[in-house]
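Ticket closed. Logging final result for CUZD1 protein.
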Amino acid sequence: VGVPRCGASLHELNKALRIELNANANCVWQIQRNANQTIRLIFSYFKFAPSSSCKTESITIYDGPSTKSPVLGQVCNDTDAVPVLQSSSDSLTFLITTNSVAFTRNFFVFYYFFSPEKKVENCGGQLTGPNGTFTSPNYPKPYPEFTYCVWHIRTAKNSKINLRFQDFFLELDQNCQFDFAAVYDGLTTNTGLIGKVCGRAQPTFESSSNVMTVVLSTDYANSYRGFSAQYTSTPLPGPVEPNTFLTCSSDRMKIVLSKSYLASLGHNETHLQLNDPSCHPVVTGSVIFSFPLASCGTTKKDDGQSITYTNIISLSATGGIITRQKSIQIIAKCKMENNSTVEAIYITKNNIIQNTTSVGRYNVSISFYDSDSFSKPVLQSPYYVDLNQTLFAQVSLHSSDPNLLVFVDTCIASPQPDFGSLTYDLIRSGCNKDDTVVTYPPLEHYGRFKFNAFRFLQSFPSVYLQCDILICDSNNANSRCTEGCISRQKRAISSYMWKTNTIVGPIRLKRDLRSADHSESLAKADAEETPNLQQYSFYTLSFVVLISNIIIVVAVILKYHIKCQAGYGYQKIQSS
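Final structure:
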């Protein structure tokens, strides 16, 4: 294992690096070799300064020989997966930058060159039955070196997955830096890490939905028999209707949450707080927050045409050190215009929008589709896309009234689900503000447009869309929905029946799919390590006793050949 101080040029076929950095580091490692092969780079352990962010401290990986090459991914303090990245050629570069905080950062990374066309038998795949089994390659014989296998498990809708490793033996290490299995709550390996394990154990894991991903990664030494795993599925309880209500007046905001809905999220009224934690709800049959617009940490945003007041209810467990519950936020918005008020409330779990309720007369939703035929909606969330890929969005009005027409008035993008900071206009007052936006003519209950995927600068990983929707009477030939792009002055006298708001997201780049890890094992994995270490210590003690007995026998034999009794010593075997 090399210990480069700050950067290096690496040409070996494979190498492991233990890196230690202090404050204000800016170090570049370049991996390159004339091998006509691909590089796999694994950050199996990392520890940044506490409370650091991606803006101040990160590892940036570039797909090429320099930091001017395309960005392949980024690893930060809040990365929630084991970062495994793959180059498109025989060169790769990574840059580690640290902030000014006095703290010793530690990283363990290893890489190897490999040929993608060379497949390992019984390594990964799709598992779709209600239950099943799978094993590591060569099981029960030692698994191959430089192996990376991914199993995707998908069971019936409205079920969850229980995974049990019946037999498990990987190389033992306190931080699982060398050989490890990683389990994810979902179909991707970039986020949702449930646990990372190694050594000897019989770990079990449970998903929150009907999808789970299992990864096996091995290095170049110390192969053992691997694992045999079994999964089963069990039905999830029926969904509980959100039962969330928002009322906006000229000076107050009122949010009502049902206790049954909070319970379905795994929380109760004691777990709730607004932007200002000193503002408490009134708890009766429901949980009610009612407060003046200018209080309780409510943010105000004026775009010149409307004023939007936003507050966020955060749901978090209290009284412990760790949690395995997802981060949940309820975002409430009151958007005031000179002739209307739009009330919107929506739920996010780990920054992924779950459902939107536009409080008012009409129910409107927005979805992405895979083509301009708008026949097949994209169901995955986050929606992973390529940079500059054409995205097709459709706004749908859910109404039985055939005499209504939908018009997409304004759509903005933001890197945050509350749209409180940086925003970018795609459509404004019916006018396309981005060069790639194309709007389709209004079609009864549908408003459609397309645009090319982009990312925000400053390393924001996600893009969210928020659209203002106008609903008009289709019998009115002069309604706002038929006018298209108009100026702000003309817009003030345009006629429409109702205005509402809808939100979708996040959109993320495909290259981020494999750019994540939270380096330290979860408490579950830590608990499993304890018997592993005890068993390892038992083997070590047995080995020492065996060696001691052999030395004693040899000493007895030598005693007949030499007059002086031979002394012997031993050195304690260092544990990993």
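The two ends are 14 Å apart (CA to CA). No further action required.
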